[in-house]
Amino acid sequence: MTARLELRHPAGRTTIRVGAGALDEPAPEVAAAIGGKLVFLVTSPAVAGLHAGRLAALEARAREWRRLDVPDGEEAKRLEVAQELWREMLEAGGKRDSSVVAFGGGTVGDLAGFVAAGFLRGIDYVQVPTTLLAQVDASVGGKTAVNLPEAKNSVGFFHHPAGVICDTSLLATLEPAELRSGLFEVVKIGAIQQPALLDAVAESLPRLLEGDAGALAPIVAAAVAAKIEVVEADPSESDRRRLLNFGHTLGHALESVFGYRGLRHGEAVGYGMLFALRLAERRGLDAAAARRVRELIRRIGLPPLGDFAIDELLERTARDKKARETGLAWVYPRALGDGRIDAAIDPAEIRATLAEFAADPWAG
């Protein structure tokens, strides 16, 4: 049994199917996006080696199916990789009515969506995320991007997929660290929007870390439903959607400082949330609420945080794609389920708090 959700946006609607076996029953919108067309499957060799057979129901609908391999991880999200894909698509006869299927984690999905948005001024694509992090966050909302060496996700488009297929049975092959990385995005949503998600993760954590498809399905569905609520209210991230960046402002800077190595995206967000909780407590967040989030992050488990230079980290945060001419906003919960976007924090306080955080990320 799968859940069906729908995201309404200025370009139309995106259907999202969630649950074990979702790949076996693609929504009519997905079938229409690929039916009788030349379809470019953007994936990595590792993902294709594990799961390519699961795409039979989609492949059978295409007129022609072309696989385009890209690297795993952030190495995929480079302009050079996008350019090579565009060339391959042109050489294969790609047209305005061709389609793309993104099959992989968040980096593959970001890249494939970016490529679909730019090819011949935009073609349809379908997201089939194969990691927990991509299912609960990256595949939903239409944000596509590649990185520059100086800043993550700094070149991109808003381009919504025709459909998203979150088949939780694909997650059984993930190593625990990847499942943990995805759970930090669920904690983010719970802290700023849906506190019940914090309880759900805490209660079923052992099964979630085993990749249990049945346990993961309601968590993914709830996280996607919460994200849909925010995205529909602010599809172009002009205001409220920035709430979803809790933990990301510092998290993206940490990823950049460490050269996108050593910390998975969700792990960097986990550390970013620990930092933002310090700002939140100084602005009225109840100590018990902060402790509840901090302890759940601890239970999920973070790798050690390497050393970093505070000046370099501050420079990277200033380049964040969400920064405005008026400065950088920080996101934190005023109370659990009540997120705040605050652009009025003194940079001197951020610097001092970073020094404390560097000394002990876990301190309240």
Query: Can you tell me the CATH class of the largest domain?
Result: Alpha Beta
Structural class comes to alpha/beta
Total helices: the number is: 14
Number of strands: 11
Distance between the termini: 42 Å
Q: Architecture of the largest domain in CATH?
A: 3-Layer(aba) Sandwich
Largest sheet: 7 strands, mixed
Query: β content, as a range?
Result: 15-25%
Order of strands, main sheet, comes to 1-2-9-6-5-3-4
In the predicted model, the low-confidence regions spanning at least 5 consecutive residues are none
Estimated helix fraction: 40-55%
CATH topology annotation of the largest domain: Rossmann fold
Whole-number count of domains: 2
User: Over all CA atoms, what is the radius of gyration?
Assistant: 20 Å
Mean pLDDT: 94
User: What characteristic shape results from the CA principal axes?
Assistant: globular
Walk me through the structure.
This protein is of the alpha/beta class and 364 residues long. The chain has 2 domains: 3-173, Rossmann fold (3-Layer(aba) Sandwich); 176-196 and 236-359, Dehydroquinate synthase-like, alpha domain. The chain contains 14 helices and 11 strands. It has helices at 28-34, 45-51, 56-59, 79-91, 106-118, 132-138, 176-192, 195-209, 213-233, 248-257, 265-282, 287-300, 310-318, 347-359; strands at 3-9, 12-18, 38-43, 64-69, 99-104, 124-129, 143-148, 151-158, 163-166, 330-335, 338-342. The protein has a 7-stranded mixed sheet with strand order 1-2-9-6-5-3-4, with helices on both faces. A two-stranded antiparallel sheet has the order 7-8. A two-stranded antiparallel sheet has the order 10-11. Helix 5 links the parallel strand 5 and strand 6. It starts with a strand and ends in a 5-residue tail after the last helix. The model has no long low-confidence stretch (mean pLDDT 94).
